[in-house]
């Protein structure tokens, strides 16, 4: 869609449509989907320029502008895939808790926070692709959505049915 005219300018077939990330430096859109792939779409040509295999059921994504990496949480395979946005290749896959369903990148400290269905938050250092001991949440509900505000990570919670 053109952001000035609000008209559809192209329809692009991909393996999925959720979630979308935009890399302004390369003018590319990263689209994760149910095909266990991330499609990379050129914003200039409106064409798929790469298809990158990731884990099973990519569910949430974030972007690290400092390292130029796209991070994708894979719900069924219980891991996060790191993709180099220059080469469009996987550079690391990091195991996290069960059913990762939300991620937020904190640019201030270079950490990725991953909400897991088991009531934990995994923390990944993006520079080393290593995890620390997961945070265990003691309040009722499952973490569903995270956001980074530069110093705190608010999260939304739901019950085990996804509500």
Gist of the model:
The chain has strands at residues 20-23, 28-32, 37-42, 48-53, 58-64, 69-74, 79-84, 89-95, 100-106, 111-116, 120-125, 130-131, 135-136, 142-146, 155-158. The chain has 163 residues and is mostly beta strands.
Any chance you could write out the topology, listing elements then pairs?
Layout: E1 20-23, E2 28-32, E3 37-42, E4 48-53, E5 58-64, E6 69-74, E7 79-84, E8 89-95, E9 100-106, E10 111-116, E11 120-125, E12 130-131, E13 135-136, E14 142-146, E15 155-158
Antiparallel strand pairs: 1-2, 2-3, 3-4, 5-6, 6-7, 7-8, 9-10, 10-11, 11-12, 11-13, 14-15
Structure description:
This protein has about 160 residues and is mainly beta. The chain has a single domain (about 20-160), classed as Methylamine Dehydrogenase, Chain H. The protein has no helices and 15 strands. It has strands spanning about 20-25, 30, 35-40, 50-55, 60-65, 70-75, 80-85, 90-95, 100-105, 110-115, 120-125, 130, 135, 140-145, 155-160. The strands form four sheets. Strands 9, 10, 11, 12 and 13 form a five-stranded antiparallel β-sheet that branches. It starts with 19 loop residues before the first strand and ends in a 5-residue tail after the last strand. The relative contact order is 0.12. The model is unreliable at about 155-163 (pLDDT under 50).
Count of DSSP H/I helices: 0
Give the integer mean of the pLDDT values. 79
How do the SSEs run, as a string of H and E? EEEEEEEEEEEEEEE
Helix content: under 10%
**What is the gyration radius calculated from CA atoms?**
16 Å
Low-confidence segments, given as residue ranges, are: 156-163
Count of discrete domains: 1
How much of the polypeptide forms β-strand, as a percent range? over 45%
What is the CATH homology-level superfamily?
A: YVTN repeat-like/Quinoprotein amine dehydrogenase
Based on the coordinates given, report the CATH architecture. 7 Propeller
What top-tier CATH class fits best? Mainly Beta
Biggest pleated sheet = 5 strands, antiparallel
